[in-house]
Specification:
Blueprint (H helix, E strand, L loop, with lengths): L1 E6 L5 E6 L6 E8 L4 E9 L8 H15 L4 E6 L4 H7 L3 E2 L7 H15 L3 H15 L6 H6 L10 H6 L4 E6 L1
Parallel strand pairs: 4-5
Antiparallel strand pairs: 1-2, 2-3, 3-4, 5-7, 6-7
């Protein structure tokens, strides 16, 4: 593990913490103390640790420590494997500081939903999603991840579309 500290262009302090790539858990966190934000820049969990709530438990401890340290928000760029679905399911909203608006981010994700739809019911859900956007109703990442979900089912439209998706999220602490 290594840590590096530097100043951003505005003179604020930024600390970057990186773990070893060879460990079971590899992560990079970038702390911006000026804005009170920690960016969950990178996270990789060994496959034998996945699906056991390991990441959920780790994030719970980390988020509590962030609060105690005076940080006010966590940001993510969900873009690797399961991150798009996982961060959405964890309750992250859209990061409005990102160059695209939340509506634009959803528009960018629409083709994934169109490709993931497997039947007429799912295509109807995509059409309803498009109507919502046309009426200015922008769903949260979590609502997108839940689209088409029913209890007891392990595969649904929102999950398929959000797995591997690329979007920018934020959770206020």
């Amino acid at each position: 593990m290594y840590t590096e500290a530097y100043r951003d262009k505005a003179g604020g302090s930024i600390i970057r913490v990186v773990t070893s790539e060879s460990s079971d858990v590899s992560l990079t966190r970038v702390f911006d103390w000026t804005d009170g934000i920690v960016d969950h820049y990178y996270f990789k969990l060994a496959s034998d640790l996945q699906g056991q709530s390991t990441a959920t438990r780790l994030n719970k401890v980390m988020f509590e420590q962030y609060r105690r340290s005076g940080l006010t928000a966590v940001t993510v760029h969900a873009d690797i494997d399961i991150g798009g679905y996982t961060w959405a399911s964890a309750g992250f909203g859209w990061d409005t500081r990102y160059r695209l608006t939340p509506a634009q981010q959803v528009m960018d994700l629409l083709p994934r939903f169109e490709r993931a739809a497997r039947n007429d019911d799912e295509r109807m859900l995509v059409a309803t999603l498009q109507d919502r956007l046309a009426n200015g109703d922008v769903p949260t990442p979590g609502q997108l991840a839940d689209l088409g979900h029913t209890v007891g089912v392990s595969d649904w439209l929102g999950k398929r579309a959000m797995l591997g998706s690329d979007w920018h999220g934020r959770m206020d602490l």
